[in-house]
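Researcher: Structure prediction, please.
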Amino acid sequence: RCKKGLNELLGNQVLKIMATDPGAVKDFEAFCKQTGHTLLQLDQTDKVFTFYIKKRLDTL
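Model: Predicted structure follows.
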């Protein structure tokens, strides 16, 4: 779902993702590192993790 959401955005736009799996923290950190996107912010409220991922700006 994250990849699909990012594909619908333009470069430098931000995707908000909410997850309840604690393993998502490491998953999204690794995903951003591998793809060049930026994990701007990670919030946790109770058992819900909210990620803000900025899509990389593709250059030609």
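Model: The chain has a mean pLDDT of 93.
Researcher: Thanks, that helps.
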